[in-house]
Amino acid sequence: GENVEQHPSTLSVQEGDSAVIKCTYSDSASNYFPWYKQELGKGPQLIIDIRSNVGEKKDQRIAVTLNKTAKHFSLHITETQPEDSAVYFCAAGAGSYQLTFGKGTKLSVIP
Amino acid sequence: EAGVAQSPRYKIIEKRQSVAFWCNPISGHATLYWYQQILGQGPKLLIQFQNNGVVDDSQLPKDRFSAERLKGVDSTLKIQPAKLEDSAVYLCASSYLGTSQGGYTFGSGTRLTVV
């Protein structure tokens, strides 16, 4: 089955700096890669996703890049704000099968 | 649209007791998932339903866990008997397109503590 590795497990940045979280996956059949943000006491919320026919996608301060050859994808957050502090999960999936999640990155934005 | 509803929000039980969780997905979402999230880890799939049929329950500990989705809408997840290692947040998610391509909408989860 699919295996998703996520790094780093914790990340602290100063407000206004950029944050980068990286994930690798094992199953070459995976073709859908979403990112979720989870705040304390809440369920994960989809923030951005990318499909295998696209190399990069951007939504305001958030961007995701995908390298299918190397089987890795990354989340980039620019101009970080305190409200970006949360746990971020990457995931990978294919077709009608379920998503496999990474172990999460706890992002702390220091004012 | 209303989100995925889960209840209860919190539950504390003693080991060997039983517990049940309830989920009401977003209206019209055919696919429903139950995930287990142990503290400090990512969500791990327990079971996937398409309408009222099971698509994948390969990671469900069937000796103690059971789930059903009657009439293809609400779902319940039961643990009997509970073990200490079952302490986790149980997340329900639903998807309109019935595939991972559409992304999930998660509920807020039920935090289970087994003492």
Structure description:
The complex is a heterodimer of chains A (111) and B (115). Chain A has strands at residues 4-7, 10-14, 19-25, 32-38, 45-51, 56-59, 62-67, 72-77, 86-92, 100-101, 105-110. With 111 residues, chain A is mainly β. In chain A, strands 2, 4, 5, 9, 10 and 11 form a six-stranded mixed beta sheet that branches. In chain A, strands 1-3-8-7-6 form a five-stranded antiparallel beta sheet, with no helix packed on it. In chain A, a hairpin with a 7-residue loop joins strand 9 and strand 10 (100-101). Chain B is 0% helix and 48% strand. In chain B, strand 5 and strand 6 (53-56) form a beta hairpin. Chain B is globular and about 40 Å long. The A-B interface holds A 4, 6, 32, 34, 36, 41-46, 49, 51, 89, 91, 93-104 and B 4, 33, 40-45, 48, 50, 55-56, 91, 93, 98-101, 103-109.
Structural class computed from helices and strand pairing of chain B: mainly beta
Q: How large is the count of helical segments of chain B?
A: 0
Determine the strand fraction of chain A and express it as a percent band: over 45%
Structural class of chain A: mainly beta
Q: Mean of the pLDDT scores of chain A?
A: 94
Q: What overall geometry of chain B do the principal axes of the alpha carbons give?
A: globular
- N- to C-terminal separation of chain A? 41 Å
Q: Which regions of chain B have little confidence, pLDDT < 50, spanning 5+ residues?
A: none
Order of helices and strands of chain A: EEEEEEEEEEE
Q: Residue ranges of chain A: pLDDT <50 for 5 or more in a row?
A: none
Largest chain-chain contact?
A: A-B, 27 and 25 residues
Q: Count of helical segments of chain A?
A: 0
